[in-house]
Amino acid sequence: MSLQYTPQYKSIQNYIYFIIMCFLVPFFKRYLNRNPRRFVFLTHVPSVALVLAGTKFFLFAEMLYVVPQIISTGSVIYFLLWLLSLFIAYNIIANLLAAHFTDTSVGSLPKERQNPKPHEEHMWHFCYKCKKMVPPRSWHCKLCNVCILKRDHHCILTASCIGHNNHRYFFWFTFYLAFGSFLVMVTNFTAIVVNKRSFLNYYARAFVHPEFLLPKKTPVKSLENIEHLDNFLDLLYFLSVLVAAATGGGFVCQLMTTYIKGDFMPKYKRQYHLGTRKTFQLVLGKRGFWTFLAPNLKSTLQHDGTIWKTNLDSKVMESEV
To answer: Tens digit of pLDDT for each residue in 79-101?
Structure first.
């Protein structure tokens, strides 16, 4: 008997997921503050492994079993899709590794820049954890246990803090992750429309019995009698709704937290905003959007992460002119 979903059930289900995420976020933050090292071990390894394994799985699942349901494997389009898929997978993994191994801490600065110059002292602040002066926009990370240049956040998917030196890699990592997910959604939806229920049966059987994917001259007769296949498909749908609701609930909670913090810090919130164009120039470096090609493409940043212009400085310069 397949799972039945009513509008009332869906609304209650989403409400429960939202409440769970709103309670889980504070719980994890409290656990992080009490056991930072254990939190790193419990989150970093599974998260990175999930990204690497998921990228590999969807690459081969899509190109070997989904896309052939739509177009011929001997066509030029199929070959081009292979190149595009490999390009996306490479940028996901390579940018993840680049973001992880790039040192963006205050300690990465040259020794002569780890102390403020006389005219910069009023902009630097003292970190009581590191017990030294740090540049503006640099904040201490409890998980990394160092101060990070232009610290944005600590990302468990890259197992590192995102800051001045590796923000470019994180940007392209998330971009290709989203782009790849979009292509997976499009190809799966197209295959479902083209092949209707038969494609779903094929995909479910392959999931339950991996040997179904192996090339055989004769079909396996036992697979024709798989029981409760509809229930299994309903389970897949349920898991998809669960993941989407959990992710969406966590995102909404994070937005609420960010909005509340922004109300308490309205001046700081917009202090360093110089416009979208200049922001991309600061993050991507001199080569700009050409960095989408590969993380090993050198693109020198505009400064070392210690000198930050504010929109107040820009307004003063405009008034003087």
So the answer is: 999 999 999 999 999 999 999 99
- CA separation, residue 154 to residues 50, 179, 268, 274 (Å): 17, 22, 20, 24
State both tokens at 87: 């390009």
Which residues make beta-bridge pairs with 162?
Answer: 153
pLDDT in tens, 242-272: 444 444 454 455 445 444 444 444 445 567 7
Report the C-alpha gap between 259 and 89 in whole angstroms: 34
Q: Considering only CA atoms, which of 151, 153, 136 is closest in space to residue 257?
A: 153
Who contacts 262 (Cβ-Cβ below 8 Å, separation ≥6)? 269
User: How far, in Å, are 64, 69, 174 from residue 82 at the CA level?
Assistant: 10, 15, 21
CB-based contact 172:95 (threshold 8 Å)? yes
Length of the chain: 321
Annotate 269-303 with three-state secondary structure.
Answer: HCCCCCCHHHHHHHHHCCCHHHHHCCCCCCCCCCC
Q: Would you say 158 and 170 are in contact if contact means Cβ atoms under 8 Å apart?
A: yes
Q: Which residue has the tokens 């020198």?
A: 300
pTM of the model: 0.70
Domain ranges in the chain?
Answer: 17-268
Q: CA-CA distances (angstroms) from residue 318 to 10, 16, 296, 315?
A: 54, 52, 38, 5
Q: Are 249 and 21 in contact (CB under 8 A)?
A: yes
**Residue carrying the six token digits 């209650």:** 12
